[in-house]
Amino acid sequence: MKVTIAIHRHLAGVSLAAVASMALAGAARAQDAATPPTAAPQAETEDAGAARNADIVVTGSRITTSGFNAPTPTTVIGEEQIANNAQPNIFNTVAQLPSLQGSTGASTGTFSTSSGQQGLSSFSLRGLGPIRTLTLLDGQRVVGANVTGVPDISMFPQLLVKRVDVVTGGASASYGSDAVGGVVNFITDTRFEGFKGNILGSITKYGDDETALVQAAWGKSFLDDRLHVVLSGEYDHEGGVGAGDFGTDLAGSRDWYRATTLMNTGQLNNGLPQFNYRDYAQPYQYARYGLINNGPLQGIAFDRNGTPYNFNYGSGGQPLGNGQVSNCFRGNSFCQGGDLSGAPGSGASLKSALERINGYTRIGYDFADDNEAYVTVNVAQVKTSNQPSPGYNRPSLTVQCANPFLPQLVRDRCATAGITEFSFGSSNGAFPDPRVHTDRKQYRFVGGLKGKIGVGGTDWNYDAYYEHGITISDIRVRDIVLQNRYVAATNAITLNGAVVCADPAARAAGCQPINIFGGFTPSDAALAYVAPHENGPFQHTKLTQDVASLNFSGNPFELWAGPVSVAFGGEYRREFYRVNADPYGAGVSPLSPNSPDYPADPLLNSTLGSNWAAGNYKNGRGKYEVWEGYLEVDLPLIDSDAMGRANLNGAARVTNYSTSGTVWTWKVGGTWDTPLDGIRLRAVTSRDVRAPNLSELFAAPTVTTLPNFNDPFRNQAVQVFQNTIGNTNLKPEVARNTELGIVLARPSWLPGLSLSFDYYNIKLSGVVSTLSADQIVRFCFEGNQAFCGGFQLDGPQGTNFVNVQPFNLASWKTSGFDIEASYQWQQPLGLPGSFTVRALGTHIRKFIVNAGIAGVDPVDQAGANNGNTPDWKWLAVQTYDSGRFSFTVQERWISDGTFGNQYVVCQSSCPASTTNHPTIDHNRMKGAFYVDIGATFKFGENLSIYGKVDNLFDKDPVAAPQTNTGLDINPALYDTLGRIYRAGVRFNF
Q1: Which pairing describes strands 435-455 and 458-478: parallel, antiparallel, or unpaired?
Q2: Strands (E), 321-405
Q3: What is the pLDDT of residue 801?
Q4: Counting beta carbons within 10 angstroms of the beta carbon of residue 642, is it exposed (0 to 12), middle (13 to 18) or buried (19 or more)?
Q5: Rounded CA gap, 579 and 274, in Å?
Q6: Which stretches in the chain have pLDDT values below 50?
Q7: What is the pTM of this model?
Q8: Which conformational region is residue 92 in: left (phi greater than 0), alpha (psi within -120 to 50 degrees), or beta?
Q9: Is the CB of residue 394 less than 8 Å from the CB of residue 430?
């Protein structure tokens, strides 16, 4: 037995099985799974025969019967492969599969303040997004970890997971909404007996992300093996990788960040590319401790001591006195090189710090032979912390020349120039860095009955359960600025010999003046007023899920080729959420009233809220109900030595959504075990749906701060709020999913060999999607009036916005193929044990996104490595296992790609640059090749030690340039942490 030990405080019994590695050395497709590397060839034959005579559960279908082959390709990751990958979260192992693209984890979302998805582990199949991948636990739904409805894998009882089934095809007819990209089903060991544990520690080459994982599971049978009790528990602490300083400084001694950005010339039709790919982007509207960025004094900056100096612009630029800089890129306000000390990009966390506690209990009682009543309780908590950016980036502030903090030299220059005020920008490098803290608690309760009953002379399997899940999610942001208070605190005057805030109302509300000309740390009272540490933005969310499900399957009669298998059932589901936020972000209301912690303030917008620089959470609530029923039939067509064995599988499901009415889904497919030795053909086509989730339907507006947004009307960068709101009129998305495959499974002439090739084609219509804020503004700028009513760009800072709302307008088309090959060599070169090689690859031929809006051209996102869909993604594993010692080498590879396929690459004689097809001078993004190694040594049957090195050659991430000031890397595809050392011990009794 494999091990994993963990217990923590008052949360009892949990576990996450170590990691689903890509020592996936023996696991093959669900119907073709190879035996463990230590098994002898004779055992393979015996096991295969036993499997044919036993009922098996195939995740791609509701049919539960012996000898059934589902037509939908299913990859299986076994318990041993999970352990071999030695990860603190099983999510990390499964996400390495090439068919999974765009999954989220602790290394994604770290640049965000408002998403609430920091540290949330969720899968995305086919690059369609986590909301289109259905994740199940023992075939049952799990309450979402946030309002998008996706569960957090790290909250599962991972040490009890004995396999993970990954269905790479539409399965809505069998499992309902969300299974458009496929299904990931975690199967636990419900009859585990004994005690097992796992202790794992890890650290990066740079001395950070120190991880400590402790897991344990216990199981025992009572009452003559009728009562089964299983407990598991887990504690995981991951230190994360913090932010660097301003400029290009990163955490530890990492040195790969070069502030790579797509510089915008602002010129659309001068024969040269609009966007230039450049390293060392220098924002010229602000500096670390302040910069006068407009007017006759433009170019005067301030050092840490408040001493004025002439700012060192990159690109040989000189201030022009109108807010622009010569030789620089006015479209998004960058120069190249120069003084980068105030650039905020490197000041974001590379990985969220994370703490997890899981507890799980299952009690089952066999009230009759082959019949069980059971209850499960799963309690889990995940806390994260990340820094989205350093200081407070303020590119536009009007400063009075009479400000008493302003050095006399600059005041004299004001008098000489005949001005009384000037425009000023600062990164506020002396301010504390904001941090986002999330706390997700989940309580999941399931009660059910399952077993067999005899009806009409045949046995029928039944499975009935009720699930109630609750998620409580809290987000708190510390040290974030209230923008109007910042303006008041920086506008200082001298009154009765003392420096005070100029606004009397602000003074009455507690305003304390701040010196922003240099690196002077504000007083505690000033910070409490401008950027409160404890009473910052918050959001409190409660989600509930209730599911009642009843399923039957059996063989009611036989035909010429064997028994007809039937499955049918029904399900009821209710999803609900409620969220409330602080009054400064959400606006004052009965749900978000003023209080001693958030007192009324005449300077703040009490009606609309959105007073924070970031983290403006809103209030909301919503619910929907689902009623559905389904029927699935497997019809045997051929069973003979001459023709082989073939079956036809079909399913249909009718679903009624309280929000959008009734929809039908279906699938038709089949398999043919040909008379050719080891050759199987399979095909399936299906109609699948995804209903809009609570967030898309009812979500309180999500407000995202865009600090360096390009205003094409004035050709300058401004700060805007992107307001994303829900739409209760949304309808379900509808997909047509087709797969064709051929399998060579352990032929007699080479029994250790397995090969498969599967082609897929997915057409998704009515996609719930939005245009980006930049697209909306640019289409208006280019004359499309339909886009001109939902934004403001020319108001004071803190009032500019772009509204973004989802609609069922878009369509997606994607196709490609999966390749899998594995070979197991027993007693290689006369050595004991086995040598196994395995390779899995996915090629995306196309991924065409059509916004469905007049004037917006479709874009093929296949091969755009700035996103989630590279042309190729490969995983290869080689393992030698002697029975006592094993050694594994694993390679992960993604192909070269582009920043985006919408760009037109040119150096001169360029066509006019448009929003649909902007011109660019370079559009190539390198892929990546990573090598991992690991080894395990067993001391008898009950104790083993193991070690692993991920990213052995310490490959740096590739720049993923955008047009703003972010860190600009893509952690969804590239390793951002560097080499990681892992070591641990497993034991069982």
Answers
A1: antiparallel
A2: 334-336, 353-368, 371-386, 394-400
A3: 86
A4: exposed
A5: 43
A6: 1-56, 66-67
A7: 0.88
A8: alpha
A9: no
